[in-house]
Amino acid sequence: MENIKRARAYKKFAEMLIEYNTPEANGAVLFADYLSLCKGALGRGDEFVAVMRERFQHVIYDHDLNAAPAKLKHIQEVSSSDDNYSLLQVCDVLLGATLNGILKTQKGPRMAYKNELSGKLMEILEFPSFDKSYWQPQTKTYAREYQNKISMADYQQATHHKYRLWFWRPEQK
Prior knowledge:
Elements: H1 2-21, E1 28-33, H2 48-56, E2 60-61, E3 67-68, E4 72-78, H3 86-103, H4 108-125, H5 132-148, H6 152-157
Parallel strand pairs: 1-4
Antiparallel strand pairs: 2-3
């Protein structure tokens, strides 16, 4: 059950990231790191790529039956350790520095380097803190912007347009 919840959350955040950060894109390419994908329900293997294809490669019709072009023309599972996908390695570094900043792990010489990298990330991307108490109130603003489909020009004028942290947890039922 926990794997299903993780897979659903992973899929939803991937959809939001693609929609939110590429409002005018069509015919784009998505390379997904096979190590970071969540497994599907009941041990059927990874369903992430198939779900992303269904969501972003099929033509979508609006209420007037006008077809919007597919957002993604190609989706592929790749290894971020392959030098052909070095941009995924940069993403891994950003994600690792962010996670390290949030968790505030301080032990060992290797962690000193990671803490320094996290500090540089904050400086370069111009944000004040990794603390949940700073970012959690921002989440409502980001969700509202996502729902209202703000333009890329408006997004680029918004606070923290270079980098945003979303803290999310499912509602208790």
